[in-house]
Amino acid sequence: MKLLVTGGAGFIGSNYIHYMLGRYSDLSIINVDALTYAGNLHNLQSIDQSEQYRFVRADITDRAALEPLFAEGLDAVVHFAAESHVDRSIEQPEVFVRTNVLGTQTLLELARQYGTGKFVHVSTDEVYGTLGEEGLFSETTPLAPNSPYSASKAGSDLLVRAYHETYGLTVNITRCSNNYGPYQFPEKLIPRMLQQAMEDKPLPVYGDGLNIRDWLYVEDHCSAIDLVLRKGKSGEVYNIGGRNERTNLQVVRTILAELGKPESLITFVEDRLGHDRRYAIDADRIRNELGWTPKHDYESGIRETIRWYKANRQWLKDVRDGSYRAYYDTRYGSS
Ligand code: NAD
Ligand code: DAU
Predict the structure, then answer these.
(1) Does 204 sit in the ligand 2 pocket, CB within 6 Å?
(2) Count of domains observed in the chain
(3) Please, which of 13, 25, 60, 269 could form a disulfide with 8 given CB 3.0 to 4.6 Å?
(4) Structural domain includes residue 25
Protein backbone atom coordinates (compact mmCIF):
# COMPACT_ATOMS: atom_id res chain seq x y z
CA MET A 1 0.00 0.00 0.00
CA LYS A 2 1.26 3.47 -0.91
CA LEU A 3 0.06 6.11 1.52
CA LEU A 4 0.34 9.88 1.29
CA VAL A 5 0.45 11.43 4.77
CA THR A 6 0.14 15.21 5.00
CA GLY A 7 1.48 17.09 8.02
CA GLY A 8 3.64 14.14 9.04
CA ALA A 9 6.30 16.35 10.64
CA GLY A 10 3.81 17.61 13.22
CA PHE A 11 2.77 16.10 16.53
CA ILE A 12 0.11 13.55 15.58
CA GLY A 13 1.36 13.00 12.02
CA SER A 14 4.84 11.97 13.18
CA ASN A 15 3.41 9.66 15.84
CA TYR A 16 1.17 8.14 13.16
CA ILE A 17 4.07 7.50 10.76
CA HIS A 18 6.04 5.76 13.53
CA TYR A 19 2.93 3.77 14.46
CA MET A 20 2.25 2.62 10.88
CA LEU A 21 5.84 1.79 9.92
CA GLY A 22 6.20 -0.13 13.17
CA ARG A 23 3.25 -2.31 12.20
CA TYR A 24 3.20 -2.80 8.45
CA SER A 25 6.19 -3.96 6.41
CA ASP A 26 4.25 -3.82 3.11
CA LEU A 27 3.48 -0.11 3.45
CA SER A 28 5.25 2.87 1.91
CA ILE A 29 4.61 6.39 3.15
CA ILE A 30 5.18 9.72 1.43
CA ASN A 31 5.15 12.49 4.01
CA VAL A 32 4.18 15.89 2.57
CA ASP A 33 4.78 18.78 4.94
CA ALA A 34 5.51 22.48 4.44
CA LEU A 35 7.57 22.61 7.66
CA THR A 36 5.82 25.55 9.24
CA TYR A 37 6.89 26.44 12.78
CA ALA A 38 5.00 23.26 13.88
CA GLY A 39 6.83 20.86 11.56
CA ASN A 40 9.86 19.19 13.15
CA LEU A 41 11.75 16.56 11.19
CA HIS A 42 13.66 15.53 14.33
CA ASN A 43 10.45 13.68 15.19
CA LEU A 44 11.16 11.30 12.31
CA GLN A 45 14.94 11.07 12.53
CA SER A 46 14.91 7.39 13.47
CA ILE A 47 13.08 6.35 10.28
CA ASP A 48 14.14 8.90 7.71
CA GLN A 49 16.58 6.48 6.02
CA SER A 50 13.92 3.77 5.78
CA GLU A 51 13.10 2.49 2.28
CA GLN A 52 9.45 2.58 3.28
CA TYR A 53 9.54 6.35 3.87
CA ARG A 54 9.97 9.47 1.72
CA PHE A 55 9.76 13.13 2.73
CA VAL A 56 8.59 15.85 0.33
CA ARG A 57 8.58 19.46 1.45
CA ALA A 58 5.49 21.06 -0.06
CA ASP A 59 2.57 23.26 0.87
CA ILE A 60 -0.82 21.57 0.56
CA THR A 61 -2.17 24.61 -1.29
CA ASP A 62 0.53 24.16 -3.97
CA ARG A 63 -1.21 22.03 -6.58
CA ALA A 64 1.77 21.95 -8.94
CA ALA A 65 4.06 20.54 -6.24
CA LEU A 66 1.55 17.87 -5.21
CA GLU A 67 0.37 16.70 -8.62
CA PRO A 68 3.39 14.46 -9.47
CA LEU A 69 2.83 12.57 -6.21
CA PHE A 70 -0.81 11.85 -7.04
CA ALA A 71 0.21 10.96 -10.60
CA GLU A 72 2.46 8.19 -9.18
CA GLY A 73 -0.73 6.45 -8.03
CA LEU A 74 -1.71 6.46 -4.36
CA ASP A 75 -3.77 3.93 -2.46
CA ALA A 76 -4.83 6.43 0.18
CA VAL A 77 -4.33 9.87 1.72
CA VAL A 78 -4.33 10.49 5.48
CA HIS A 79 -4.63 14.22 5.89
CA PHE A 80 -3.24 15.76 9.09
CA ALA A 81 -1.69 18.99 7.75
CA ALA A 82 -3.33 22.00 9.32
CA GLU A 83 -2.82 25.10 11.33
CA SER A 84 -3.80 23.59 14.66
CA HIS A 85 -3.51 26.11 17.49
CA VAL A 86 -6.63 27.99 18.64
CA ASP A 87 -4.71 30.93 20.18
CA ARG A 88 -2.84 31.54 16.92
CA SER A 89 -6.12 31.41 14.98
CA ILE A 90 -7.46 34.24 17.13
CA GLU A 91 -4.40 36.35 16.27
CA GLN A 92 -4.11 35.39 12.60
CA PRO A 93 -7.21 33.72 11.10
CA GLU A 94 -6.25 34.05 7.42
CA VAL A 95 -3.58 31.38 7.36
CA PHE A 96 -6.05 28.96 8.98
CA VAL A 97 -8.53 29.44 6.15
CA ARG A 98 -5.82 29.14 3.53
CA THR A 99 -4.24 25.92 4.84
CA ASN A 100 -7.22 24.22 6.42
CA VAL A 101 -9.89 25.05 3.83
CA LEU A 102 -8.05 25.73 0.57
CA GLY A 103 -5.33 23.17 1.32
CA THR A 104 -7.92 20.45 1.96
CA GLN A 105 -9.82 21.33 -1.21
CA THR A 106 -6.58 21.19 -3.25
CA LEU A 107 -5.90 17.66 -1.96
CA LEU A 108 -9.50 16.54 -2.52
CA GLU A 109 -9.44 17.78 -6.10
CA LEU A 110 -6.21 15.89 -6.85
CA ALA A 111 -7.59 12.75 -5.19
CA ARG A 112 -10.67 13.00 -7.38
CA GLN A 113 -8.74 13.59 -10.61
CA TYR A 114 -6.22 10.82 -10.01
CA GLY A 115 -8.64 8.23 -8.61
CA THR A 116 -6.83 7.96 -5.27
CA GLY A 117 -8.17 5.15 -3.05
CA LYS A 118 -9.41 6.47 0.29
CA PHE A 119 -9.16 9.99 1.71
CA VAL A 120 -9.08 10.06 5.53
CA HIS A 121 -9.56 13.59 6.84
CA VAL A 122 -8.29 14.07 10.39
CA SER A 123 -10.60 16.56 12.05
CA THR A 124 -11.45 17.62 15.57
CA ASP A 125 -14.22 17.60 18.17
CA GLU A 126 -13.96 21.41 18.23
CA VAL A 127 -16.17 21.59 15.12
CA TYR A 128 -19.11 20.74 17.41
CA GLY A 129 -18.57 23.86 19.53
CA THR A 130 -18.93 23.67 23.28
CA LEU A 131 -20.92 21.58 25.80
CA GLY A 132 -22.62 22.52 29.05
CA GLU A 133 -22.14 20.42 32.17
CA GLU A 134 -23.97 17.42 30.69
CA GLY A 135 -23.88 15.51 27.41
CA LEU A 136 -21.41 14.27 24.82
CA PHE A 137 -20.60 15.10 21.21
CA SER A 138 -21.90 12.38 18.87
CA GLU A 139 -21.39 12.23 15.10
CA THR A 140 -24.85 13.77 14.62
CA THR A 141 -24.25 16.77 16.88
CA PRO A 142 -24.69 19.89 14.69
CA LEU A 143 -21.51 21.71 13.74
CA ALA A 144 -21.18 24.96 15.73
CA PRO A 145 -17.52 26.01 15.70
CA ASN A 146 -16.54 28.98 17.86
CA SER A 147 -12.93 29.82 16.95
CA PRO A 148 -11.40 30.67 13.57
CA TYR A 149 -9.46 27.38 13.92
CA SER A 150 -12.53 25.24 14.47
CA ALA A 151 -14.51 27.14 11.81
CA SER A 152 -11.77 26.44 9.27
CA LYS A 153 -11.74 22.75 10.27
CA ALA A 154 -15.55 22.61 9.96
CA GLY A 155 -15.22 24.17 6.50
CA SER A 156 -12.75 21.46 5.50
CA ASP A 157 -15.04 18.73 6.89
CA LEU A 158 -17.89 20.03 4.74
CA LEU A 159 -15.71 20.01 1.64
CA VAL A 160 -14.77 16.39 2.33
CA ARG A 161 -18.45 15.56 2.67
CA ALA A 162 -19.24 17.42 -0.57
CA TYR A 163 -16.56 15.55 -2.54
CA HIS A 164 -18.12 12.28 -1.34
CA GLU A 165 -21.70 13.31 -2.13
CA THR A 166 -20.96 15.04 -5.44
CA TYR A 167 -18.13 13.01 -6.96
CA GLY A 168 -18.37 9.76 -5.01
CA LEU A 169 -14.86 10.15 -3.52
CA THR A 170 -14.16 7.45 -0.92
CA VAL A 171 -13.75 9.39 2.32
CA ASN A 172 -13.83 9.25 6.09
CA ILE A 173 -13.76 12.08 8.59
CA THR A 174 -12.40 11.48 12.09
CA ARG A 175 -13.13 13.88 14.96
CA CYS A 176 -10.88 13.35 17.93
CA SER A 177 -10.63 15.03 21.31
CA ASN A 178 -7.47 16.60 22.79
CA ASN A 179 -4.33 14.54 22.24
CA TYR A 180 -1.21 14.44 24.39
CA GLY A 181 2.08 12.54 24.20
CA PRO A 182 5.59 12.75 22.72
CA TYR A 183 6.51 15.41 20.11
CA GLN A 184 3.71 17.86 20.92
CA PHE A 185 4.74 21.45 20.25
CA PRO A 186 5.05 23.37 23.55
CA GLU A 187 2.36 25.88 22.65
CA LYS A 188 -0.33 23.38 23.70
CA LEU A 189 -1.44 22.99 27.32
CA ILE A 190 0.42 19.87 28.49
CA PRO A 191 3.88 20.42 26.95
CA ARG A 192 3.71 24.14 27.69
CA MET A 193 2.98 23.52 31.36
CA LEU A 194 5.63 20.79 31.54
CA GLN A 195 8.23 23.10 30.06
CA GLN A 196 7.34 25.96 32.42
CA ALA A 197 7.29 23.70 35.48
CA MET A 198 10.63 22.06 34.66
CA GLU A 199 12.13 25.56 34.52
CA ASP A 200 10.35 26.73 37.72
CA LYS A 201 8.47 29.37 35.72
CA PRO A 202 4.80 30.43 36.15
CA LEU A 203 2.12 28.16 34.63
CA PRO A 204 -0.39 30.44 32.84
CA VAL A 205 -3.92 29.07 33.37
CA TYR A 206 -6.59 30.84 31.29
CA GLY A 207 -9.67 32.20 33.09
CA ASP A 208 -10.80 30.12 36.10
CA GLY A 209 -9.03 26.94 34.91
CA LEU A 210 -12.30 24.99 35.01
CA ASN A 211 -12.67 24.43 31.26
CA ILE A 212 -12.83 20.71 30.54
CA ARG A 213 -11.02 18.77 27.83
CA ASP A 214 -11.34 15.04 27.06
CA TRP A 215 -7.75 13.74 26.83
CA LEU A 216 -6.50 10.90 24.63
CA TYR A 217 -2.97 9.51 24.41
CA VAL A 218 -1.75 10.12 20.85
CA GLU A 219 -0.99 6.45 20.11
CA ASP A 220 -4.66 5.61 20.70
CA HIS A 221 -5.63 8.26 18.15
CA CYS A 222 -3.17 6.67 15.69
CA SER A 223 -4.65 3.21 16.17
CA ALA A 224 -8.14 4.64 15.58
CA ILE A 225 -7.07 6.31 12.32
CA ASP A 226 -5.46 3.06 11.18
CA LEU A 227 -8.75 1.22 11.76
CA VAL A 228 -10.75 3.90 9.95
CA LEU A 229 -8.34 3.74 7.00
CA ARG A 230 -8.68 -0.03 6.73
CA LYS A 231 -12.29 -0.60 7.77
CA GLY A 232 -14.21 2.69 7.84
CA LYS A 233 -17.40 2.81 5.77
CA SER A 234 -17.06 5.42 3.04
CA GLY A 235 -18.79 8.70 3.82
CA GLU A 236 -18.86 8.05 7.59
CA VAL A 237 -17.69 10.32 10.36
CA TYR A 238 -16.02 8.63 13.37
CA ASN A 239 -15.64 10.38 16.71
CA ILE A 240 -12.56 9.37 18.72
CA GLY A 241 -12.09 9.89 22.44
CA GLY A 242 -11.28 8.03 25.62
CA ARG A 243 -13.73 9.60 28.14
CA ASN A 244 -10.95 11.23 30.12
CA GLU A 245 -12.54 14.53 31.08
CA ARG A 246 -10.35 16.76 33.23
CA THR A 247 -10.41 20.45 34.09
CA ASN A 248 -7.31 22.35 33.04
CA LEU A 249 -6.52 22.88 36.73
CA GLN A 250 -6.60 19.12 37.34
CA VAL A 251 -4.17 18.59 34.46
CA VAL A 252 -1.82 21.28 35.71
CA ARG A 253 -1.89 19.99 39.30
CA THR A 254 -1.04 16.47 38.11
CA ILE A 255 1.96 17.81 36.19
CA LEU A 256 3.19 19.76 39.23
CA ALA A 257 2.72 16.76 41.54
CA GLU A 258 4.54 14.38 39.17
CA LEU A 259 7.44 16.82 38.87
CA GLY A 260 7.48 17.60 42.60
CA LYS A 261 6.91 21.33 41.97
CA PRO A 262 4.77 23.69 44.10
CA GLU A 263 1.22 24.75 43.18
CA SER A 264 2.31 28.34 43.80
CA LEU A 265 3.64 28.24 40.20
CA ILE A 266 0.01 28.32 38.96
CA THR A 267 -0.82 31.80 37.64
CA PHE A 268 -4.31 32.72 36.50
CA VAL A 269 -4.17 34.87 33.36
CA GLU A 270 -6.69 36.55 31.05
CA ASP A 271 -9.11 34.10 29.44
CA ARG A 272 -8.93 33.00 25.78
CA LEU A 273 -11.49 34.83 23.61
CA GLY A 274 -14.52 32.64 22.84
CA HIS A 275 -13.06 29.93 25.12
CA ASP A 276 -15.06 26.68 24.74
CA ARG A 277 -16.11 25.43 28.18
CA ARG A 278 -16.29 21.70 27.84
CA TYR A 279 -15.57 18.96 25.29
CA ALA A 280 -16.53 15.29 25.74
CA ILE A 281 -16.71 12.62 23.07
CA ASP A 282 -19.14 9.77 22.50
CA ALA A 283 -16.93 7.24 20.67
CA ASP A 284 -19.49 4.39 20.59
CA ARG A 285 -19.55 4.20 16.78
CA ILE A 286 -15.84 3.49 16.32
CA ARG A 287 -15.83 1.17 19.34
CA ASN A 288 -18.88 -0.84 18.25
CA GLU A 289 -18.53 -0.80 14.46
CA LEU A 290 -14.75 -0.99 14.07
CA GLY A 291 -13.75 -2.57 17.38
CA TRP A 292 -11.46 0.27 18.54
CA THR A 293 -10.30 0.28 22.14
CA PRO A 294 -7.80 2.75 23.57
CA LYS A 295 -4.85 1.10 25.35
CA HIS A 296 -3.76 3.94 27.62
CA ASP A 297 -5.66 5.25 30.61
CA TYR A 298 -5.13 8.91 31.45
CA GLU A 299 -3.03 8.33 34.58
CA SER A 300 -0.48 6.07 32.90
CA GLY A 301 -0.51 8.14 29.68
CA ILE A 302 0.26 11.38 31.46
CA ARG A 303 3.05 9.75 33.50
CA GLU A 304 4.52 8.28 30.29
CA THR A 305 4.33 11.73 28.64
CA ILE A 306 6.05 13.44 31.57
CA ARG A 307 8.81 10.81 31.48
CA TRP A 308 9.26 11.46 27.74
CA TYR A 309 9.61 15.23 28.11
CA LYS A 310 11.99 14.81 31.04
CA ALA A 311 14.12 12.40 29.01
CA ASN A 312 13.98 14.61 25.91
CA ARG A 313 14.87 18.04 27.26
CA GLN A 314 17.10 18.54 24.21
CA TRP A 315 14.04 18.20 21.94
CA LEU A 316 12.31 20.96 23.93
CA LYS A 317 15.46 23.08 23.97
CA ASP A 318 15.85 22.78 20.18
CA VAL A 319 12.24 23.88 19.73
CA ARG A 320 12.66 26.78 22.10
CA ASP A 321 15.86 28.12 20.50
CA GLY A 322 14.72 27.39 16.94
CA SER A 323 17.56 25.01 16.06
CA TYR A 324 15.05 22.26 15.11
CA ARG A 325 14.52 24.20 11.90
CA ALA A 326 18.08 23.48 10.69
CA TYR A 327 17.41 19.74 10.44
CA TYR A 328 15.90 19.94 6.95
CA ASP A 329 18.98 21.65 5.52
CA THR A 330 21.31 19.22 7.28
CA ARG A 331 19.45 16.15 6.07
CA TYR A 332 18.05 17.20 2.70
CA GLY A 333 20.26 20.14 1.66
CA SER A 334 19.28 23.80 1.79
CA SER A 335 16.44 25.02 -0.40
P1 NAD B 1 0.65 20.24 14.47
O2 NAD B 1 0.43 21.72 14.44
O3 NAD B 1 1.55 19.65 15.47
O4 NAD B 1 1.20 19.77 13.04
C5 NAD B 1 0.70 20.27 11.83
C6 NAD B 1 1.66 19.88 10.71
O7 NAD B 1 1.09 20.36 9.47
C8 NAD B 1 3.05 20.51 10.85
O9 NAD B 1 4.03 19.55 10.57
C10 NAD B 1 3.05 21.61 9.80
O11 NAD B 1 4.34 21.88 9.26
C12 NAD B 1 2.11 21.03 8.74
N13 NAD B 1 1.49 22.08 7.92
C14 NAD B 1 0.85 23.20 8.36
N15 NAD B 1 0.45 23.94 7.30
C16 NAD B 1 0.80 23.25 6.19
C17 NAD B 1 0.64 23.47 4.80
N18 NAD B 1 0.03 24.59 4.34
N19 NAD B 1 1.10 22.56 3.93
C20 NAD B 1 1.73 21.44 4.39
N21 NAD B 1 1.94 21.18 5.68
C22 NAD B 1 1.47 22.07 6.58
O23 NAD B 1 -0.79 19.61 14.53
P24 NAD B 1 -1.29 18.28 15.29
O25 NAD B 1 -1.63 18.62 16.68
O26 NAD B 1 -0.37 17.17 14.98
O27 NAD B 1 -2.68 18.04 14.52
C28 NAD B 1 -2.72 17.29 13.31
C29 NAD B 1 -4.15 17.24 12.80
O30 NAD B 1 -4.98 16.64 13.79
C31 NAD B 1 -4.76 18.62 12.52
O32 NAD B 1 -5.53 18.52 11.34
C33 NAD B 1 -5.63 18.90 13.73
O34 NAD B 1 -6.72 19.72 13.37
C35 NAD B 1 -6.08 17.51 14.09
N36 NAD B 1 -6.40 17.28 15.52
C37 NAD B 1 -5.49 17.62 16.50
C38 NAD B 1 -5.78 17.32 17.84
C39 NAD B 1 -4.81 17.67 18.95
O40 NAD B 1 -5.16 17.54 20.12
N41 NAD B 1 -3.59 18.09 18.66
C42 NAD B 1 -6.99 16.69 18.16
C43 NAD B 1 -7.89 16.37 17.15
C44 NAD B 1 -7.57 16.65 15.82
O1 DAU C 1 -10.12 19.14 21.00
C2 DAU C 1 -9.17 18.93 19.99
C3 DAU C 1 -8.30 20.16 19.85
O4 DAU C 1 -7.45 20.20 20.99
C5 DAU C 1 -7.48 20.17 18.57
O6 DAU C 1 -8.35 20.25 17.47
C7 DAU C 1 -6.50 21.35 18.55
O8 DAU C 1 -5.68 21.28 17.39
C9 DAU C 1 -5.66 21.29 19.79
O10 DAU C 1 -4.79 22.42 19.84
C11 DAU C 1 -6.54 21.26 21.04
O12 DAU C 1 -7.23 22.52 21.22
P13 DAU C 1 -7.39 23.21 22.67
O14 DAU C 1 -7.64 24.64 22.47
O15 DAU C 1 -8.33 22.43 23.51
O16 DAU C 1 -5.90 22.93 23.21
P17 DAU C 1 -4.85 23.84 24.01
O18 DAU C 1 -3.74 22.93 24.42
O19 DAU C 1 -4.50 25.09 23.27
O20 DAU C 1 -5.66 24.25 25.30
C21 DAU C 1 -6.23 23.27 26.16
C22 DAU C 1 -6.96 23.99 27.28
O23 DAU C 1 -5.98 24.63 28.13
C24 DAU C 1 -7.87 25.11 26.82
O25 DAU C 1 -9.01 25.16 27.68
C26 DAU C 1 -7.04 26.38 26.99
C27 DAU C 1 -6.18 26.05 28.19
N28 DAU C 1 -4.84 26.67 28.20
C29 DAU C 1 -4.03 26.47 27.13
C30 DAU C 1 -2.76 27.00 27.12
C31 DAU C 1 -1.85 26.81 25.92
C32 DAU C 1 -4.39 27.35 29.35
O33 DAU C 1 -5.12 27.50 30.33
N34 DAU C 1 -3.13 27.88 29.32
C35 DAU C 1 -2.29 27.73 28.25
O36 DAU C 1 -1.15 28.25 28.30
Answers:
(1) yes
(2) 1
(3) 13
(4) yes
